[in-house]
Amino acid sequence: MTAGAEPPGFFPTFAATAEREPFWFLGGQVRVLLTGAATDNQLTVLEFAAPAGHAPPHHVHEDEEQVVFVLDGEVTFFVGDRRHDLVPGQVAYGPRGVPHSYVVRSPRGARLAVLFSPACIEEFFRANGTPVAEAGELPPPFDLAMVMSSAEAFRLRTA
Question: Cα–Cα 20 to 30 A to 95, which of 42, 49, 115, 154?
Answer without folding.
Answer: 49
